[in-house]
Amino acid sequence: MSKRVGYIRVSSADQKTDRQLEGIELDKIFTEKISGKDTRRPALQAMLEFIREDDKVFVHELSRLGRSMIDLYQLVEQITEKGAVISFVKEGMEFSTGQADPVKQAMFGMLSVFAQFERSLIKQRQAEGIASAKAKGKHLGRPAKLTATQREKISVMVAAGETIKAVAAEFEVSRATVYNCISKAT
Length: 186
Hints:
The chain is an alpha/beta fold. It has seven helices and five strands; from the N terminus they run ββαβααββαααα.
């Protein structure tokens, strides 16, 4: 018996998935909150494993399936080679095995290029933002677990013979953090 399968993806944990595939009756939904920059995504791989011949896969829009033109072509091919149909709801496009509609293929190609272009713009804006923050002297990345004074105290305690485990417990950090402090002090 054929299944109606949904694949839903957003790029970050704080984004909502509820608007995607809203109102479409589905037998199984694969959802993930992860970048679409490559195809090594757990829910995507699970969906590809799950689908069978005569199933129909629904994706809200092309960019939700992938951001690279090559990845999009390969994924559509992988799905249709299994005998399943893939439907991109927003674009109103559907692909199945042996389908050779040149206009639809051209539209798919153009939309794939735009998805890849959008990914490139995101990366460029991110790089510009990082460069701007660095130029302003802002700290990037996770906040430091320990202050300079605490790091110095850790080095002194270890040099005085305290065990790594005891020092880590006192400062409520991992042993790796203690080792890191020691290596940076030398």
